[in-house]
Write a structure and sequence with these properties.
This protein has about 270 residues and is an alpha/beta fold. It has two domains: about 160 residues, Periplasmic binding protein-like II (D-Maltodextrin-Binding Protein, domain 2, 3-Layer(aba) Sandwich); about 90 residues, Periplasmic binding protein-like II (D-Maltodextrin-Binding Protein, domain 2). About 45% of the residues lie in helices and about 20% in strands. The protein has twelve helices and twelve strands. It has a five-stranded mixed beta sheet with strand order 9-8-10-7-11, with helices on both faces. It has a three-stranded parallel beta sheet with strand order 4-1-5. It has a two-stranded antiparallel sheet with strand order 2-3. The longest helix is centred in the first third of the chain and has 16 residues.
Length: about 270
Amino acid sequence: MLFKHKKISILLIVLFIPILLFPQDGKVLSKILKNGELRVGTSGSQPPFTMKSKDGKLMGYDIELAKMLADVMQVKLKLVEKTFVELLPALEKGEIDLILSGMTITAERNIKASFVGPYLISGKALLAKSKRIEALDEMDELNRPIISVATVKGSTSNQFLHELAPEVKLVLTKEYESGVKLVLDNKVDAMLADFPICVLSLLRYPDSGLAILDDLFTIEPIGITLPPNAFQLHNLIENYLSALQIGGILENLEKKWFQDGSWLIRLP
């Protein structure tokens, strides 16, 4: 066992031995163990969940969680980087075993995939220059053709704006950093994204005049995305998350990646 936390290691062994010794029809889990490799899909562009360091390596909350998953399963971790919108199709095709990429649990996605969690609770927040934020404090003010808002294509932010602010000029991006840059360059009025991503933008660009709207538009559960019929893998990861929560490891991860900010020096 590769865990440094002995109590957590013992708890994980107790939880997972029955699953590993008595397989039922867990083809996905059996394949992972046989190949000795866990393929985790991630966008690499959703800080602080998943992002790239100066040397091009993937890092973040989800990356660290993925490493813990692979460790407890005693397999190698293979990170498969794809754009956010490509992740669910890749899971459906069997190109990856699971998704860890700040993905919100929704009914629509649950038709195509299974979710474990949530391991974090987030919400939609509006990021804009401080001089614009006061004018956009209501959905009615946002829902106008003269207002332009950036969101990541295929994200729940994209869907949210399409449904509740159909009049807004929607600017779709491949990743969040592109949306932040559009706000910084005054090319859009605002960006709608998960709250942690907006907070990170304030930390990264402290002198840019960025601000976040005080009230969140939604409350959203973030989960680990699995193939729909991977029952044993689902059970394994569900127990694993419970153990991490009981041991306080998830809380420590949240503090490290969402509150500390010391890792920012590793970013390009």
